[in-house]
Predict the structure.
Amino acid sequence: MSAFFADRKRRADLIVIAALLLLALALYLVIGATRTEGGAVVVRVDGVVTERHALTDDGIYPLNGGSNILVIAEGQAWLSEANCPDLLCVKQGKIHYTGQSIICLPNRLTVTVEGGESNGVDFVVG
Amino acid sequence: MKTKKITLLAMCVALAMILSYVESMIPSPGIPGVKLGLANIVVVFALYKLGWGEAAGVSLLRVFLVSLLFGHAASLMYSAAGAVLSLAGMILLKKTDRLSCVAVSVIGGVLHNAGQILMAWLLMGPNVIYYLPVLVLSGTVAGVAIGVVSALIVRRVDLK
């Protein structure tokens, strides 16, 4: 009676699962192949750019009125502290490739590595 | 609606909420959106044993109540986007009757994550697309686990 053990369906199930695993691998390879070392760290709150730092610009930066603490050191960026209970953004670790980002859902804040030159320090106050 | 059915649906919603709460106590691997989706066991069960409307009702009510009780302001939008897309996919896939509830659950898991990415894209811009590969993978793996459990429960529980 169980649909789970009906052979025709089980075969179709395996095809679907295999296809999705291949899709994940393909997406990973495509995104990995287009990946380059980034130059700047861009902070957005609600999708609006609030800060921009070069990845070479070592320092500790409080973001969004201190809700999250951004650290840039040795060409990498990460969040060392946050005021949210789950601290998912802190657990997301260090980023340095173009397009990599750290997302803090509770504060609607993203930290994204972008390409471009690593000299000039733009400071946009939004 | 018969009293028995009202009670059954209320129990499904309550069970789904408890499973969401239990899941919130499992430590997260640190990637947003990577999770087991325990509550989907109840949704798949409702889909196979009660019907698609009942499954949709249980799922959406669960999302709303859990966000209200344990979530933050943004979590309702992410969960709702995931739940709607996941429900639509699972309902359509079940109607084709080509796949067992394992694959239906897998598609549900992947679409749930896809819905959340879509919502994150709308709210935070296109860079969230970098999470897609790992979320497709985690949705598939979690979907298999949830689907196998759901299949066992659907097979063993007799509502008559």
User: Anything to note?
Assistant: The first helix of chain A runs from residue 7 to 33. The beta strands of chain A are 40-45, 48-54, 59-63, 68-73, 76-82, 101-104, 109-114.
